[in-house]
What does this fold into?
Amino acid sequence: MDAKALFRRMIAEGFRFKTDGVTLFVGPASRLTDGHKELIRSHKAELIELINRYLLAHLEDAAMRLCDAYDYPPEYRARMLKTLRKFPKYHWHALIHFMEELASMANQELDDRITCTECVNYQQKSGRCLAAWRGELIGVDRVYHPSPTRLHRCEGFIAKEVARGS
Ligand code: SF4
It folds into this structure.
């Protein structure tokens, strides 16, 4: 059995692999039989290389998606790829960090809540809501002082940019 077949078989058995480029971690350790250990030992170098290659592909993909999101210039992207390839030890941490950042960006994009500070109806000086004053917010007192930075959805919301016509 070659390293790839071993890797696939053990993943199907519920094992997980991790490497810092030098050491190979396989878990859960309590389920490893002597047979597993022997096979892992004899394919250690290939397993590390296989995981690193796989990891690097995902890492580079995540890095480029972040560069797209931030609109980074080509020189910066090239430097980033070069650095990533140079330090396999940090691949896991970098991948986790990039994926968290991408997930947080996706959450922000999908979040349609707003704050009153973004709304043309919010009166900075008095802290009052003009839509409520005009009786446009159902069940809300006319003299309404909303919490300006609380994220929420509101039927009276008009974005300042929309009001300005941009
Ligand atoms: S209309 Fe809604 S979002 Fe706008 S200030 Fe009033 S409460 Fe806030």
